[in-house]
Design goal:
The complex is a heterodimer of chains A (107) and B (426). Chain A is built from 2 helices and 5 strands. Chain A has a 5-stranded mixed sheet with strand order 2-1-5-3-4. With 107 residues, chain A is of the alpha+beta class. Chain B is built from 11 helices and 26 strands. In chain B, the strands form 7 sheets. Chain B has a 5-stranded parallel sheet. Classes of the chains: A alpha+beta (107), B alpha/beta (426). The A-B interface holds A 22, 26, 29-32, 34, 39-41, 43-46, 66-67, 70-71, 73-74, 107 and B 17, 24, 43, 45-46, 59-60, 62-65, 67-68, 71, 296-297, 300, 304, 322, 324, 326, 331, 333, 374-375, 377-378.
Chain lengths: 107, 426
């Protein structure tokens, strides 16, 4: 199973095995990681599963949809070029070792 | 009085969020989350959507794993209904006679399915859909049947109809009103979805009620309608709304009015008891009118507002409500409360399948319904929360940039506030 590392703002790391086909958001929720809220359950209706995905991982995911783009404008922590909604990021074998940074705040 | 022990009745989205928010606001006392259903709290929205047609994975429904509750010192007492609230002694009693004392009690008791009041409605093969157990039973039933009658063209009924069509079932929807989702949507939007279901092969029977559920071999085998015909089917799904769970509040002598009545701070007249989520009837901001909403947003935002108050921040509840539904390739998003709207302005083209309907009362915007227009929806939430004035003409004019308008409005409000502060300072 691919491994995803969630990095908290204070540098603490959580390494989680996430089944192929699951979302990066599901991996965090399933492991009970604070820092991903996901109040809408992965429908791109809220902006509480915000993560920062940097290179080389950023390019491995499909580009941001209009829906995700709108929600990202509404994140509580600042939006950067690395911002994504983790509910829109499907884990595949090609992202094994993925590192995502969690924002300071989600709500 | 200090609050050290908080008991939450109801382990749905509102109760769960209250527990989690209390901890994230630094509440250090005890939290007990009591629920009727066994297991960890889970999400309901997927049950009528992806869960039915592609992803029946119960584990992924959990809001958090069991370990999370242990780590955050949230005591789960799920599967043990509360039978009594004693306000004088400040305690709740569970069905197994366990007694839990509270300093503050949060009622997040939710709602339950409205039962179909016709002969045959209790036959095997008649399904409802609210709990994970009900979703599981409907999913397995759908796997072995080839036709379905859905009673009620509300959100649940139509989401089930869409899921059943994706699975190739023959689907008939019976609805007593003359248009689907009539309680929640504008006529134009109802018509759009009615047409979408018809295009996808659903037999839409509007202005038609279910009179009886037909029996064959001890099971449901279809329905007879108020127009006198018989619609045979292998299974029946009833989605005719919910009723709030107010019985504990009534027993405890708290006021109810289509929900447990609370003020703008979500408090009942007993200062040690609050109510949130589907069960709570709260005043619409700026009015004395009570409203009770059934949505994730309402559950979550009320839970957070209450958690903030219980940890020392006095804020009244005034979030802009939003909702969503998915049927086929149409994602419906709604912002605001549109009941009572008398003018509906279409923005974009209905035929294109990506448009919004701005619902006004006179010249005041009440809410916006969007299909496949996430930008309109998000902008609508901001317009409604900021109170930005919007004319009917601007709403209809797709060249009028709503996003730019809200950005300008926010700048104007901010500079007006700076100006006010400077006046005060001088």
């Amino acid at each position: 199973m691919p491994t995803v590392t969630y990095v908290h703002p204070d540098g603490t790391k959580h390494e989680v095995e996430v089944a192929t086909g699951k979302r990066v958001m599901h991996g965090a929720i399933g492991a009970g990681i604070d820092g991903i809220v996901a109040e809408c359950g992965g429908q791109a209706m809220c902006a509480t599963c915000h993560v920062y995905v940097e290179s080389p991982w950023a390019d491995k995911f499909p580009s941001i949809s209009e829906e995700e783009d709108e929600m990202l404008d509404d994140t509580v922590s600042p939006r950067t070029d690395a911002s994504r909604l983790s509910c829109q990021l499907v884990v595949g074998d090609d992202v094994d070792g993925l590192i995502v940074r969690l924002p300071e705040e989600q709500v | 009085m200090s609050v050290d022990r908080i008991v939450i009745i109801g382990s749905g989205q509102a109760g769960f969020e209250a527990a989690v928010s209390l901890r994230s606001h630094g509440f250090a006392g005890s939290i007990t989350l009591v629920g009727d259903e066994p297991g960890v709290p889970y999400q309901r929205p997927p049950l009528s959507k992806a869960y039915l047609h592609c992803d029946p994975d119960r584990d992924s429904l959990a809001l958090r794993p069991a370990q999370y509750f242990e780590d955050h010192r949230i005591t789960l007492a799920c599967g043990k209904p509360v039978v009594r609230v004693d306000r004088d002694a400040q305690l709740v009693e569970l069905i197994d006679a366990t007694v839990i004392e509270y300093d503050h009690l949060i009622l997040a008791t939710g709602a339950r399915n409205r039962l179909l009041p016709v002969p045959g409605a209790d036959l095997p093969g008649v399904h409802y859909l609210r709990t994970a157990g009900e979703a599981e039973s409907l999913t397995s039933s759908m796997a072995s049947c080839s036709s379905l009658v859905v009673i009620g063209a509300g959100f649940i009924g139509l989401e089930v109809a869409a899921a059943a069509r994706k699975k190739g079932l023959d689907v008939t929807v019976v609805e007593a009103m003359d248009r689907p989702m009539a309680r929640a949507l504008s006529p134009v939007m109802s018509d759009y979805f009615s047409a979408a279901h018809t295009e996808h092969g659903v037999h839409m029977r509007l202005s038609t009620g279910a009179k009886t559920v037909v029996e064959a071999d001890g099971r449901a085998a279809g329905v007879t309608t108020t127009s006198g015909d018989v619609i045979p089917a292998d299974a029946v799904v009833v989605g005719i709304g919910v009723v709030p769970n107010i019985e504990l509040a009534v027993l405890a002598g708290l006021p109810v009015n289509n929900g447990i009545v609370v003020d703008e701070y979500l408090r009942t007249p007993d200062e040690n008891i609050s109510a949130i989520g589907d069960c709570a009837a709260y005043p619409i901001p700026g009015t004395a009118r009570l409203v009770r909403l059934e949505s994730v947003q309402n559950a979550v935002d009320q839970a957070r507002c209450l958690a903030a108050q219980l940890t020392g921040t006095s804020i009244n509840y005034r979030s802009v409500p939003w909702f969503w539904s998915e049927q086929y390739e149409s994602k419906l998003q709604m912002a605001g409360l549109t009941a009572g709207a008398d003018t509906h302005v279409v923005r974009g083209s209905v035929d294109s399948g990506a448009f919004s309907i701005f619902c006004f009362l006179g010249t005041r915007l009440l809410g916006v319904e969007s299909v496949n227009k996430p930008r309109d929806h998000m902008t609508a939430r901001k317009i409604l929360s900021s109170g930005m004035p919007l004319t009917l003409e601007q709403a209809a004019d797709t060249d009028f940039d709503l996003k730019l308008a809200i950005a300008r409005h926010k700048d104007e409000v901010a500079s007006a506030e700076v100006g006010e502060r400077q006046v005060v300072a001088s």
